[in-house]
């Protein structure tokens, strides 16, 4: 069809030539005019020219205008042509018949040029508008079909909704990922169709399209999102939601959700990250990940007193084994070893393979060196166990170097470097052992190992030495009791300081047996003195482990019964550390001990965190003021004020007061003046075996 109303083709059919001439005059300057007076000829011309407007005279010989109109309308190419009837009749019946046939307008005879021109022009305009509308509709349909094809063909999932989040469209990818068919999903809220959850916690996530609709902006999907389809399949997804606006009015129409399946991409990324940070043979963390773990451990430690240990493990003579038996056997041994080391790892420990036959065992939180020693010994023991490959067994030895942060290293690089240096100490010695980079730690480790073996031996022999330090009534300097203090001798008959072996006993759990043996010897001496007519109360220190042992009260009762010793001649000294592990259990134990009749002293008062609360909650008989306050009495007014305050407090609670660590006349004078009941220290005598001590004692002949 043509672009405007001044172009087009008009076919005029009239049996009167004069009428045709008038039509040509009216329209000839504007349109292509085809005229004929023969209906038969008109049919031929119509097929040839396919006119936009056809003018038909109603009354014509042979075939009138109505018949001709029907014939022309039957031609498919003329389906869009408009028909205008030319008539001199004005009857309603005639007009009705013409309109029923599809007439668009009428031109009355005699023909008026201007009227004829305007009537045809109107039809031309209508034709042009109809054509434009049809073209627009076709274009729109074509564009919609094209866009629909694109949405159904793209690799991303697309879901559209109305402005309330109700689904209106799903493309095939969205159907596959959600498990919903488009017809099934239409009219359903999008958060029902898209079951979004947080990938780590599996908690439900809000669909971003609601935020996009509310805030009228593009909203990205939250990180770590997964989509659970109707059949339960899970997909990791990502992308965004956007609002849809009417381009003319800018009003909100709805929203569109575009997302993609990134499950494989994330899995690939995870795999690549794993490959980058792990040893390909054993799957253990490699040097890169180990460095990161060490940095994390250092940052997490902060200013605490925890230690970080790096144990560098190097297999002795592994190259020879690898070369002689083949790399396949060597690799199998390495894999078995990695598995053993992983089984040992605990408390966030990291096992890393940093070389062919080199491993690192990272201990990120160590309370004390004993833990490191025990772990080193355990690792060597496990590595020394035979490895079975095929039908053969293979045994390995190991050289291990240890570096400790912050004792001898301040960075991950130094930890590895120093552990490597320490490892070579072992390599150049006897192998199959471990050494510390720090000489001080190394010597301390060796001393600890010696003391542990010695302690085991002395406990097995029951050859502990128990020394005694008298307690004196400050009012008259007479003996009121004694405190039992344990010692051990080495194989060269040298006395080992308690500071060297008591921590070892506590770390190894031997402290309970040690405490029980000291308790037994002390009660035996108290029974002896009672039999000799010199009854005296002996105080025995009780460790936290010993006190919190569920058998402790029964053990005390059994030892008293064994020696037939009245409970009033036994005093148990307990520190705050023994009480804080389990307040309820401690209270129960205290009640049981009081029921037996044993005296209970709170030792080292003032050095803990909650001393006053313990005095209120526990029914002690004796309060011992720690030597750290007593030693400063000569020179520190603040220490004097603290001791006076403690004495006043103890008196108000009706507690017996004992001051430890008295070494000078001035200290003794001060403590007497403020009303302290008893004291002990080097001013009187140092701890000694009872046989050496008894000649210095003035023992009362009445009940102590």
UniProtKB/TrEMBL annotation:
User: Could you state one GO biological process linked to this protein?
Assistant: regulation of DNA-templated transcription
Give the stretches traversing the membrane. none
Q: Which Pfam families match?
A: EAL, GGDEF, PAS, Response_reg
Residues of the Response regulatory domain: 9-124
Q: Which UniProt keywords apply?
A: Phosphoprotein
Name its species: Alteromonas lipolytica
Q: Where is the PAS domain?
A: 143-216
The record, for InterPro entries, names: Biofilm_reg_signaling, CheY-like_superfamily, EAL_dom, EAL_sf, GGDEF_dom, Nucleotide_cyclase, PAS, PAS-like_dom_sf
Pinpoint the GGDEF domain residues. 306-439
Q: Which PANTHER family match?
A: BIOFILM ARCHITECTURE MAINTENANCE PROTEIN MBAA, DIGUANYLATE CYCLASE DGCP
Q: What is this protein called?
A: Two-component system response regulator
Sequence ranges assigned to domain EAL in this UniProt record: 448-701
Q: Which residues carry this modification: 4-aspartylphosphate?
A: 57
